[in-house]
Model the fold of this input.
Amino acid sequence: MLEIYQVSKSFPTPQGPLAVLQSISLNLAAGNTLALTGESGSGKSTLLHLVAGLDSVDAGTVRVGGETVTGRADADRARLRRTTIGLVFQQFNLLPSLTVGANLAFQARLCGRHEPAHLADLTRRLGLDGLLDRYPEQLSGGQQQRVAIGRTLAARPQLILADEPTGNLDEATGDAVLDLFLDEVRASGAALLMVTHSERLAARLGHQHHLSQGRLESRS
Ligand SMILES: Nc1ncnc2c1ncn2[C@@H]1O[C@H](COP(=O)(O)OP(=O)(O)OP(=O)(O)O)[C@@H](O)[C@H]1O
Done:
């Protein structure tokens, strides 16, 4: 589902180029889950952005569902994001003029996969039933995070990229949300790549990789 091959990325800084990722390779098959850990600033979000085609690699290739992300036109990468990839990023990017209910359904409607029963189940499991008529600005950070998760999962993406999806949640809610991710992956056969600072949550995923000084180390 996901093939990352010898990907490198650096950013310009006043002190010269900062090599954030150095020849990173990684494969993730459909139905598999992988936790990506690493210190703050080690390049975890950068790697997710490259996979999603939101930024360009300096070298190497990324393939999602057999399609090459790298070297494609922006419109093509946007299509891939819409149809195949589900993103839960640190900025939740909820639509401020839409209610929680409409935000939850937005992505699934956009890609023609709106299933009311599935969405109702996600809404219940994310504890959002009482909030459907509110607007994003009326929610706490953790509630916004859960809406962003529901919106992504409702669209049944084949590849889920989640950047600290439980970062704003207390431990019990974080555990319940991870249960939901894992159940959805089991049911849909999607692949899940999740960034987390929690070793405890990372251990619940099928594979664990650690990013340090630009290199990826497999821990299982
Ligand atoms: N657009 C950019 N321009 C310059 N430097 C950048 C840019 N984006 C990221 N960086 C730098 O690249 C490094 C990796 O950042 P990244 O956000 O990927 O880290 P991270 O591992 O996700 O961190 P955190 O756990 O704090 O979210 C950092 O040193 C950051 O300052």
Notes: The chain has one domain: 2-218. The domain at 2-218 is CATH 3.40.50.300 (Rossmann fold). Residues 11, 20, 38, 40-46 surround adenosine-5'-triphosphate (CB under 6 Å). The helical segments are 44-51, 74-83, 100-110, 116-125, 141-154, 171-188, 199-202.
